[in-house]
RNA sequence: GAUCUGUUCGUCUAAAGGCCAGGACCCGGGACUUUCAAUCCCGGAAUAUGGGUUCGAUUCCCAUACAGAUCACCA
């Protein structure tokens, strides 16, 4: 790489950050870091109608949670600011380039009202061509500085008639785009339309803004979703007209993330319908409707990123578990897929489970603690708590599972599952546990192996299969048929609590 | 409808002309065991179709089929 790469993520602050968006961030970030480059966050807030308060902070929170923090952003500006397009517009940046395009004949003024545009679309719409475009064939029939004479245009302009600036695309030329993932893609300009570049409110559209800002911010590589491919030739045309193609960033259009069932882009609705999140973090829309995020349902950020990275990329070795650091070291655009990938929530959970197993109890503790607190469960400080996490982490797929799996350590089992032992409960067992309590009370040391050894010895003496006694003991200590080894549990609970729990359930059972 | 992009087990994918198409998720079975997990073993399942090119095609070419994206003063 000749110079330090500069990459950007350029979301519009309109709502929750989607899985696909996070993956776009990730690939941009990985590539930047892989090559010692810079990762910038630029806010594309040019659509004031869709702007949502708080969405910008939300995006930053997502990046922070993921650990994909930008080197330059509206919150920590670098030398290429401002980093919000609305602020850039205030400085007249886009206007200047739009005017230049008009002056040089690459763009023109269009005075058509929304009604007139609608009228045009319905008038020229046919079964063969359901979406007529504002292009070289139709622009002569519309009200613009190409169809009107200069005098009329000037008076319209002087009279304050609302107008937009549209790119002038001449037919019959070929635009070639060299995509890092897909190779050479050719478009004929005949199929392109005269896209609006500058809106009537003076704001640029995405097309103008992305080109101008990528140039001004010296972006070297631009990775974005595949849905942008159809408008890529317009951007190439703009680059040629404004700054020269040789300065254009290298493009890559990332494959789409598809819905698990059927086909098509994964949407928030699919998540609601199928019962999984599609946003990174909880998102509350302006109407107050909450959409769950991966963080809140109990994902580790590392697992989330790991899963996303593998949706469309692999290093060819068969390795599936990667830390962010490893991804940075191994990531390469050459190995990014062309085809879209269906999102599989089961596999996503598998990644998280692996990450939890792999995490230390100490690392998990601060993440899990609030979950217990939330449920009103008082937890001990320090080692006592992490010991429990160590005991149960391998059976937790989501962080939230820890509460379910671990609550009985800290709270007395209120409703023990008597049904599963009552049927086989008898005098002999009653006697056994009474004796067990006596024995345990006298035990010099309270430690799992010793507890187990004594238990088995006594079972043998009583001529009852240990298995028939362990089930009741588990219900007594845990309350249900789950959890780690019973003697490890007893050891952790301590003598007093263990005996208390045994006694309590014995009182509930009738031989 | 037009333009563009895709297509290997149900899903994510490996094999960048050449060992029985490999791994993972998932599902089924077994082992272990003290429940549930974890772990280990075994099994299930794929190159969309048709033509070429080649001694040999998952891989290269063409056609067909299917799927997707886009077609706003939204990004």
What's the arrangement of secondary structure elements?
Blueprint: E1 6-9, H1 19-34, E2 38-41, H2 55-66, H3 85-90, H4 93-103, E3 107-110, H5 114-124, H6 150-158, E4 164-167, E5 174-179, E6 183-188, E7 196-198, H7 206-216, E8 221-225, H8 232-242, E9 250-254, E10 257-258, H9 268-274, E11 283-284, E12 290-291, H10 294-297, H11 301-309, H12 324-330, E13 341-342, H13 345-358, H14 361-374, H15 383-392, H16 401-410, H17 419-422, H18 427-442, H19 448-462, H20 466-478, H21 486-493, H22 495-508
This protein binds one RNA strand of 75 nucleotides through strand 6, strand 7, helix 7, strand 13 and helix 13.
> Structural class from helices and strands?
mainly alpha
- What order do the strands of the largest sheet run in, or round the barrel if closed? 3-4-7
Oligomer: single chain
What's the architecture of the domain at 93-198, going by CATH? Alpha-Beta Complex
In total, the number of strands is 13
CA-to-CA gap between the ends?
79 Å
Task: Average the pLDDT over all residues and give the rounded result.
Answer: 95
Total count of helical runs of at least 4 residues: 22
Major sheet summary line: 3 strands, antiparallel
Query: What is the helix content?
Result: 40-55%
What is the CATH topology classification name of the domain at 93-198? Glutamyl-tRNA Synthetase, domain 3
